[in-house]
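Continuing from the previous page of notes. For each protein in this section, the sequence appears first, followed by its structure tokens. Read the first protein now.
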Amino acid sequence: MKKLLFIVFVAGLALSSCQSGKNESKTDMENPFFTEWNTPFGVPPFNEIKVEHYLPAIQQGIDEHNTEIDAIVASADEPTFENTILAFDKSGELLNKVTGVFFPLTDANTSDEMQVAAREISPLVTMHRDEIAMNAGLFAKIKAIYEKRNELGLDDQQVRVTEKYFQDFERNGANLSVEDQEILKGINGELSTLYLQFDENLLAETNKNFILVIDNKEDLAGLPDDVIAQASDAAKKAGEEGKWVFTLAKPSWIPFLQFSEKRDLREKIYRAYFMRGDNNNENDNKAIIQKIVKLRDQKAKMLGFDNFAAYKADVNMAKTPKAITDFLMELWVPSLKMAKEDVKSMQAIADREGANIKIESWDWWYYAEKLRKEKYDLDEAELKPYFSLDNVKNGIFYVAKELYGLQFVKHDNIPAYNDEVEAYEVLEADGSHLAILYMDFHPRDGKRVGAWSTGFRDVTYRDGKRQPYIGEIVMNFTRPSGDAPALLSFDEVSTLFHEFGHALHFIFVDGKYDRTIGSVPRDFVELPSQIMENWAAEPEVIKVYAKHYKTGEAIPDELLNKLIKSGTFNQGFITGEYVAASLLDMDYHTTKNPEIADVDKFEKDAMDAIGLIPEFLPRYRSTYFSHIFSGDGYSAGYYVYIWAAVLDADAFDAFKQSGDIFNPEYAAKFRKLLEESGAYEGMDVYRQFRGQDPAKEPLLKKRGLL
């Protein structure tokens, strides 16, 4: 959802389509953005949209939005909620129609031409956003309503949207002098360009600049058959017929590190992964990071905050950088302790086997797999045949039906942006239309790494009618190979449930006003996604979707019990690498010296300060930390996943304590929480569901950190 993921201060930029009064040229008429979409369910006509359509449509969208803003400002009528707040809230529809397609595709289906377009479009949109944020006339009218908001007979949601817009303008420079506003516009424009450069460099370093080619079959020692088959298919696509190719996509390099007996090759591929953007070549990201950190600090101080972390935390549940850091350290200490114990156990295995090595970061996955086998008699390779992608999809649909009565119907006639993308209609229990959800599962050139959920059209109200959500979930799962379907690790299973949870949030949200509908604090965002991972790990649910892809037999109880018992395994590493990255993020955005002379040294000093052991790295090193450096979204906010993990563990504990993980009363209350998110402050919404503040104990117990 763009209000959550694109960090737009103005929901008036969370926009859709309006017709211009201008005479349309032949070119305009051929541009799909200037016509009504007569596609199934009003989805974007991806098959008709060309790269050259975006820029003119965005330019016209900006012109139309400016005209609407000018009309609000120029009105001689006394400012009212309807002629100012509501008019602004529903303005700029064409721009949203275009950006709602363009920006998601720059992540999921980009090209050289799209990247060129993005370099022009992104600063243009940023500049437009800044012009609105610093429009003195518009701010004056919003301020006039804000100051009288409790005297105008407004309902609680009208008061809330008024307060949110006023806060937005203040946080984006409306109170600055004209001179400082121009400086801030320059900062924002430069940042938008730097974010694009960071992302483009990372995409090149990940998808283009490294592959591990194996031409000796002996070098495949230890690798499962499905991993070898995938590497063979990748080799064919890379023009390396008869060889095996491994890439820096997670479904490729993680299994290699888990199972390859060739330590030198494990080091080679992992080093390529963790050195992305740090190779002193044309794709190096260190200078970009230096500029971003300095500009963000300058921006925060101009707006009256001590640092950028304080600026970001001010509108989150955490409120202060100290609260965030203290919270992270509470988790870091037990995680590090557990990780050190695991290192001892793994080193003992290596010693017993006569490896004659000291465990290094490229050894962790390999010896962790051996340790899991030793502790729980569980082998990842035993599990994957039960987790075919189609079966896991059935699992997420099953949970959605049991909780909310939803149905998912696949449609082959709905336009998609890539041939391998699937489209589903989401139906309510009574069969009424609720949303369209695309699913894009596999890695390819032009697609960034990771997994995410985003929207092509957010839920909104137009002329009193609810406009349903059109969105997608995007993954990078291993492709089918030979006779085998796409087989997932249990971590990938959890990822699919996670992103599906985001999608459900975006599908359910409801409310009259674009600014507040579904708009929650950043440290609330991951609650709807992470709570779904709890159902993924419940035996009752696993038995529904874990079916052997060859025989169709359900996962045996013995194997299932091993999986459940291993639930807290490796949590020192999993939690520790995440918390380390979160603390690194906070260090960048609370530093008293934003003139960072040496990015690598800054990172090392930050990790040394918390006692990070050399056997593992932070989940993201600086030069590929796209969460915080390819946009503002999670900057000074990577901590939010584990902050929300406290909420999700506590919320799911309510279901568990009731004795029914599909408890209809709690399901109805949680759906209401999702629908009303944005209507109230994050913690207030949570308390309405839970009836109490969240407790940390369920999370600590779940991760074995008590």
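Done with the first. The second protein uses the same format. Note its length before scrolling.
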Amino acid sequence: MSTPLINLKNIGVNLGDRWLIRHVDLSLHAGERLALVGRNGAGKSTLMKLITGSVEPDEGSLWVAPGVRVAYLPQSQFIKGIQTLASYVGDSLRNPAELHVAEAMLMKMDLDPARLTNTLSGGEARRLALANALVNKPDILLLDEPTNHLDLPTIEWLEARLSSHQGALVIISHDRAFLRALGNSIIWINQSTLKRRNGAFSEFEEWSETILTEEAVRLSKLDKKIAEETKWSRQGISARRKRNQGRLRELASLREVRKSEFNKAEHEFKISSGKAEAGGQIVVEARNLALSIPRENGRNASVMLVNHLNLVIKRRDRIGIVGPNGAGKSTLVRTLLGHREPDSGYVKAGIGLLPAYFDQKREQLVQKATPWKILCPDGGDTVEIAGKTKHVTSYLRDFLFDDFKMTQRVHSLSGGEQNRLLLAKIFAQPHNFLVLDEPTNDLDLETIDLLQEVVADYDGTILIVSHDRDFIDRTVTSVLAFEEDGKIQTYTGGYSDYSKKRKSYASKKTVKRVKKTASKPKNKIKDRLTFKEKYLLQTLPEEIEAMRVTISSIEKKLSNMALFQEQPETYQKLAKEVEGLIERLEQKEQSWLELELRREELGEEL
């Protein structure tokens, strides 16, 4: 292999009471695109800062090849002072005389070079930071959550742009679809150590599960040996004390190893949504809805966001909302919740509606309050979760808050910690309508996985705004898409289905414009659903639901590590069974989706 651009050897970072990362070896070569994953706080951002040289290791060495250019996009970036965007990016140019290069990069990001830095929205500021990182064509490009605050069209453009990057690329992201599209190697920080695997990010799940299973087996064997040695030490030890001192020292050593492993083990993040409260079949109804906002630089003018929307959300609907930044997604959500009045039309809430709203700006969190106070605003030390009383400290520990963090001011918490706190707050209240506006920002992949499982099991109604394509695919059954001139179109399925149908529709429109036919076909018979297709459309949903129940039951059994240790053959049999069920479930879901799309295209009723 060619000479590496950078090499880290036996690197360690100590936090005083523990090692954040230790014994880290890493080399980066041109053309490598690494997906850097791990829990929040595992040390991912610190590793990037080590590569840039902004953080010094407590042990080990760092070597950078001569002339290598490193660019770093931090998770959040402070823009000091007020200047034009061209000037801001121009300050990063190796050759200040090439200001046109900075302007061209800004134009690619759909940003006006003459605009001032203090006029940018969150998404625009993120695009500016990306332009700043990309402008010098760095040899090593480090991106920490690059998709945060970006809309889907910009994310897809960025994917295409980064796929042609010639240097090394390291990405921290909660966006699985983004990592799948770009990553050709995986770096996993787990329990202070770094593990690497060459291959697509889609292989991460299986690879990491194998490692965790092997680790569980190793610890189980260690526990068994400690138990056996402890039993031995208590049986006639006085008679053999002198000649068995070495064995006793070995037992003490085993206990120290086990204690160390226990201290390294990460706490488990737990979320429980509880059962949805009772309510009517109609959750929210919107009729002839129109929404607009004032135009930034115009008098008596406005931008139409939503035009003549008719929408009925029913109990147990699972709806995703997608569209560009500024299209009006959050405005629509707030209007449906009654937090904003429409320009015209009306919104009517259903009987017994109890919404739980995760707002992306986290305005529900009082920044000067503590997590304890947020959950117990009227005093006390308990919360009610799914009908059961729980101490607030125990509940906060489920959301990975230690005792120290529970009494810290909210403004001192990280973005991920504030998101977890807001999730804790909304799940601690009665609800039957779960509304999540960009819930995955600042969360790690493991937390997103758990949130997705909770949403999947929730028996109430779901409304999700997200730019995370994978999360939308996993959680919703229909999509509301913002299109031109304030129109909102409904699509069946998740984001992938919406994207395919949108491209297909655009392709058909193009063909219709250019295709000329000499004459209309004669005696054309209208395509219709067959009796079998109609029957499957009616029966498949019940079959799918029954299979989901069976899969959930088996997965619950598999989550019990005692079964793995005591009945390994039964465990393997169940694991193989659930794998087959999941495959058949996906096939049935795909069959139903294809039939439903066909029914919609034909305009037929069941």
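What the second structure shows: The domain at 6-199 is CATH 3.40.50.300 (Rossmann fold). Residues 50 and 474 are 35 Å apart (CA to CA). We return to this in next week's lecture.
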